Amino acid sequence: MEGLLATLTMFMPQCADAVLIISNENRRYFTGFVSSLGYLLVTRKEAFLLVDSRYQEAAAQQAKNCTVVPFRNLSDSLKELLTANMIRTVMLEGSAFTLNEAAKIEAVFAEVGVSAVKTDELDRIIGKMRIIKTPCEIELMRKAQRITEEALTETMKLIKEGVTEKDLALELEFRMLRAEAESVSFDLIVLTGAKTSMPHGVPGNHRVKNGDFVLFDIGATVDGYHSDMTRTVAFGKVDDTQRRVYQTVYQAQQNGLAAVRDGVTCGFVDDACRSYIDHAGYQGYFGHSTGHGVGLEIHENPSVSPGSDFMLRSGMVVTVEPGIYLPGKFGVRIEDMVVVTTDGCVNLAALPKELIEL
To answer: What domains sit in the chain, N to C, each tagged with a CATH number?
Structure first.
């Protein structure tokens, strides 16, 4: 056994002879294979990826550092593996199993005298592994970011009076997929006018008007790894209130980026953004956390949130995305994705953030 699976066995607790992983992201993380269903049984000596006939051929070609076991009946195949490898205890991936799924697996285990360990320990072990990104993972996110930026740069040329949020969102998705993104990172957020005050509003048929802000919260995936970026631009000239809010968010984000480095807490970074916004007179208008981890999932640990004592470490990838949202009027958010380093951070985003008035 090699690679990440070998590392996982080093951290396996003594109370378990094996672990069972079923979440799509974690199966992909350890084996490199993508499927909507599968079971990764990892013993201290070997790993087995159980898949049905839909994935048998592809898994045999693509899965790394494991033995692919095709099954017709999961229960029978699982019991055979447990018996052949003399497994007596299996730790479950707690966050991935529903109560019903756990009960079914326990019933299968009981038939061959195996007990299930149901705690969050495996989740914590995998979480600690995934939270520090390898150079390869960072490079995939860097590529996803480049695709995202190129798509936005081209799409902004299409902003004009009367174009709808949906028009712009569809154009962005098309351009990302054409540029070899595996998919978009999430349902793209493109909002204009008063809807920009909704942090996670849904693109609709609202049309761009002169003097509106247009907010883009977008991202692409490459080999499963996500990018995440927000830019707010203006169509036409903004008024003094809009300009002041924009500049406040811009400076708050600059403060947050300057605070990121190995050894500081997530709460410290959040406060660098939030305190500036509060002191500028917008207390209560920045409701969400300053950021979050990014990787195989668009929202991963850590959470860059108020009061968090979680410590940033080199190799983590987090977003810094403060915003101000004035209900019924407008909102502004600016977001970059950065890699934590010993003396600061490396910003994966290159697109300018100064106020653009198209």
So the answer is: 3-130 (3.40.350.10), 132-347 (3.90.230.10)
